[in-house]
């Protein structure tokens, strides 16, 4: 399995590039890269500003389609990957749990995706996707649909329930993403 980090957001709510905001003395992106280095043979960053990430020595890929959004990022990363299954994570999720990701990988075989349910909603940007979903994702994007959730109706998704998540990450820190200055301030205080 490869790790794919989505770092193509516009950061409108934050007002700064979230990937490079420091948590515990280092940029959020570095927390994810360190975790992925211990889990996967290859890490891919999907970004339209590759110059900002070149120093990390991982594969970089730009959006493969002109239609912007996280689904295009997932599609672009999967297209670049040479593995059947891939862990997708957003660059603003610095508290990912290696044990939860490993468990998701273990249960991925035979499914198109493994998607955690957090507070009853799918978390598509902390999930495992199979490369065989590429045609469905492309078709979904080209149909004009920008939301990810409707895509799951077309896939064999293994949802990860709260009981499974709570056994490994009872505080659900893995799913904490930092989108606003307030969320960043809160993350700094709780770190």
Describe this structure in words.
By secondary structure, this protein is an alpha/beta fold. Helix content is 30%, strand content 20%. The strands form two sheets. Strands 1, 4, 5, 6, 7, 8, 9 and 10 form an eight-stranded mixed β-sheet that branches. Strands 2-3 form a two-stranded antiparallel ribbon. Helix 2 packs antiparallel against helix 4. The two termini are 29 Å apart. The model has no long low-confidence stretch (mean pLDDT 92).
Strand content: 15-25%
The gyration radius over C-alpha positions equals 15 Å
Number of helices: 6
Anisotropy-based shape:
globular
Helix content: 25-40%
- SSE string, helix = H, strand = E? EEEHEEHEHEEEHEHH
Q: What is the strand tally?
A: 10
The computed structural class is alpha/beta
